[in-house]
């Protein structure tokens, strides 16, 4: 466990030793009074009790009690600062690691699993470890202190009590094995519930329309029952082993009492010795019982740490050290790529001159969005090379690479903040006048001023307080504010009404001025002025040329154009 923790958090030895020093000191101060009180017991059984000595011992215990309050406060503060500092460091480490992954990592993972690792597994570590450090220290050092007192008084009775430790350890090993096996299954069930619940919430509109909410949504209902069963099993199956270990402690204590009475009858020990063992013997097992309960939690926490390590060990996208390109033309050289080993685009080679527009057209699944995603380096290619200004994009540092590209897609995500701050994401260093200028060019002001707080009105989670066209305009305003030299457009007007489409087209015209533009086109009428058009079919380039050239070829593009021209006159 400590090895796993050190691997993901890189423990500071000095800080760690400082925490354990205070916890050990606290556990000693908690255990010591139980041993010191025996001095009073021995004195009371002497022929002439020394009251001065008794009161001196009481005074020492009072001083130790005051010191114990100070040490307890110090150890609690140090432990919490240490544990929450580690969890903060861990969350930052995970966040930095996640942003270096390709989207393929998230595509392969259950969406609930990624969220569970970042949120629940880190919280498991934070909550469990934060409360267990003190109990571990008390179990080790508190028990050691009491054992020393007992051995001093009578080593035979002490060994009788300590004989329980190897026996209970066997039960602990069995419980440990079960927690490991059952914990993995419970975690998997928890992740499935997270993913299914996310799917349920996101698709609630469609589920309602088909009356499949509540118990009728059997998929979510079944996964919740499965999680319930596995959670109960994880608690109930190892539990009897811990309870049996507690029973062993009780039996061993009774055996010690019987042995003590036998020795007393044989005048092998005195009454004060037996009383000492009756007082200390029962306290000896208390910190061990606490830590045995904690141990199962710690073992479960260790499974969380393993999952965190698995995420940290997942391969990230390579980041080079090349300088930013001075030109912004884009070149594909024999590029092939596929999702989950399924080929999507194959042997693509084309060139997009700087400050020109390339349009990608084709049927669904032909590879249009994949090409845009590869340019944006959401994934790395399986083979071949993509260059910007003659520099392979793999060689450009990720942080700098993403400064080169602005994207405007059909699906816009807005954060639950103001319109102003959502636009400012495009360039956090922008001035207020620059943000307002971008909002004006993107036609955002035309609707923002009608809202109660204008640009400072909140948009809701995901932008749910705004229409699709309004969200698109904010997305374009972000891209305008970023002012990147390359712009990727995934037909932002495809699903908008005519009025919004006009606003968006005007905003896009502002956005693409003097940029290298790649546009995914569904409405061919919007790309008639493109410098070059690639027609994709089954992940390969079937045709290429300008709008006029492709019409003259009478190929796939001409058929698509004729169908769209005919459909423009359809009425329902």
Automatic annotation (TrEMBL):
PANTHER family: ABC TRANSPORTER, ATP-BINDING TRANSMEMBRANE PROTEIN, ATP-BINDING CASSETTE SUB-FAMILY B. Residues 45-288 form the ABC transmembrane type-1 domain. Keywords: ATP-binding, Membrane, Nucleotide-binding, Transmembrane, Transmembrane helix. It comes from Marivirga lumbricoides. It comes from the Bacteria. It is a multi-pass membrane protein. SUPFAM superfamilies: ABC transporter transmembrane region (SSF90123), P-loop containing nucleoside triphosphate hydrolases (SSF52540). Its main location: membrane. The chain crosses the membrane at residues 20-42, 54-73, 133-153, 159-179, 241-262, 268-285. Residues 330-563 form the ABC transporter domain. This is ABC transporter ATP-binding protein. It is found in: Cell membrane. One of its GO terms (molecular function) is ATP binding.
